[in-house]
Amino acid sequence: MADCRITCIRKPNPMSSHEHITHAGNPSANWFWTREEIIQSIENNQNSFYVMDDITGKRSYVGVVKVSGRNPFLRTHSDGVWNDNLLSLVQCPFNW
């Protein structure tokens, strides 16, 4: 199982702080996946995904959240607490 760092995201409205993430990736590692591909990879125990605080080096791992009546979505958690670290990442370049 690979441990994959997410460094950028894509969402329909980049200025929205609550918009769902459609894609995530890491240009330095040359990968860019849809939300659905990441969810499937996590649920099948193929890969783990995380974001990292560049100052502290602390990781927040990405999990799948399932809420009744909604599509599954990605969210980070650290020390057992869900947080919004994914939404604070920069937008992925559009040349992928």
Question: What would you say about this model in short?
Answer:
The chain has one helix and nine strands. With 96 residues, it is mainly β. Strand 5 and strand 6 form a beta hairpin.
Any overview of this molecule?
The longest helix is centred in the middle third of the chain and has 9 residues, at 35-43. With 96 residues, this protein is mostly beta strands. Strand 7 (73-78) and strand 8 form a beta hairpin. The protein starts with a strand and ends in a 5-residue tail after the last strand. The protein has one helix and nine strands, in the order E-E-E-E-H-E-E-E-E-E. The protein is globular. It has one domain. A five-stranded mixed β-sheet has the order 1-5-6-7-8.
Characterize the overall form.
globular
Helix residue percentage: under 10%
* Oligomerization state: single chain
Sheet-strand content, in percent, reads: 35-45%
- By DSSP (H or I, 4+ residues per run), the number of helices equals 1
The order of strands across the largest sheet is 1-5-6-7-8
Secondary-structure element series: EEEEHEEEEE
Structural class: mainly beta
Uncertain segments are none
As for the number of domains, it is 1
Give the overall average pLDDT: 89
Number of separate strands: 9
Distance linking N and C termini:
24 Å
Taking the sheet with the most strands, its summary is:
5 strands, mixed
Computed Rg: 13 Å
